[in-house]
Automatic annotation (TrEMBL):
Protein name, entry field: DUF6310 domain-containing protein
Signal peptide: 1-17
Domain DUF6310: 180-303
Comp. bias intervals (Basic and acidic residues): 149-165
Organism placement in taxonomy: Bacteria, Pseudomonadati, Myxococcota, Myxococcia, Myxococcales
Length: 305
């Protein structure tokens, strides 16, 4: 009998089998980062290049597109929860492995990785770049709640007992991300460079609403939105997925995740007096979202990938 309780398994399950955090905390970090971190625990034959390329997609879409790049000789999949044995025909067509991987959380014993997992080169580089980019002050406050700018923190740690003469009339710089008196992220819209490198997506976000801040996302209430509409208090989220090409099983998983995401985004926007609109590329994508939540505002942009 194969010795299953290997070190790699313990490391993998400790990262993936914990209880899913509440939606509000999951959405504070970007979908891209979450996907990279989840994929880092798996072995990839292509060095993780497919994962990095598709990391901005929903996790089920990433798995569908990159499943063949996994090192299948080092992974065993077990339907321990019994969810895949009764899965739809769409899931069965791609196998139990795919069905297990796209689950919101990995059940203990469902995925067994043989040997020690070394993070794929491309994934490690992407994670390192993300950490470096978000270490700068302009990214402070993107986690909803308590962060303040590094300049303010430095000033609080090292207060001057007596100001220099030349500094008596000097005013401290405005923090890159406005915060209110409690330290919480404010409702003031702040343009920040587009987080993703998907040029077609960014072009759509700039052109369609149209975006008040071209080439930028907008930070409101601690949340990045793809665009703030010109001349209106309307925040936009743009999706350019090739939804019409997805299998029925994958469509269901994507819609489930997106409706939850959009409901939270709408609440964040409404708390600051903004409307919230989602732009999708196809009528089929719009109809699927509205079937789940008719109260969402969804428009068809026609933007292509």
């Amino acid at each position: 009998m194969r010795f299953r309780a290997c070190i790699a398994l313990l490391l993998f399950l400790s990262a993936c089998a914990t209880s899913t955090p509440p939606p509000s905390s999951r959405r504070t970090r970007s979908q891209r980062l979450a996907n990279l971190q989840r994929a880092a625990a798996l072995p990839w034959r292509d060095g993780g290049q497919c994962v990095v390329r598709e990391a901005s997609q929903p996790w089920p879409a990433l798995v569908e597109r990159c499943y063949q790049a996994l090192d299948h000789d080092r992974i065993e999949f077990h339907d321990t929860a019994g969810r895949c044995s009764v899965a739809s025909a769409g899931a069965a067509a791609v196998g139990v492995g795919f069905c297990v991987l796209v689950a919101p959380e990995i059940v203990v014993g469902a995925v067994i990785v043989l040997g020690v997992v070394v993070v794929a080169v491309a994934i490690k580089e992407a994670l390192d770049a993300y950490e470096l980019r978000h270490s700068y002050p302009e990214e402070a406050g993107t986690s909803r709640g308590t962060k303040v700018s590094s300049r303010e923190a430095e000033a609080q740690r090292k207060p001057k007992l007596k100001p220099e003469p030349a500094e008596q009339d000097w005013q401290p710089p405005v923090p890159p991300v406005p915060v209110d008196r409690t330290g919480r992220a404010s409702c003031e819209p702040v343009p920040v460079p587009h987080a993703g490198k998907d040029d077609l997506h960014n072009e759509c976000a700039d052109r369609f609403p149209p975006n008040r801040y071209p080439d930028n996302d907008v930070l409101v209430n601690g949340k990045r939105f793809d665009a703030l509409q010109v001349g209106a208090r309307v925040l936009w989220e743009i999706k350019t997925y090739q939804f019409d090409t997805y299998s029925e099983f994958l469509r269901d998983r994507v819609i489930e995740d997106q409706v939850e995401e959009f409901q939270e985004d709408r609440d964040i926007a409404a708390a600051c007096g903004y409307s919230f609109v989602v732009g999708v590329s196809s009528a089929a994508h719009r109809e699927a979202l509205l079937r789940q939540d008719p109260s969402l505002k969804i428009v068809v942009t026609g933007c292509k990938r």
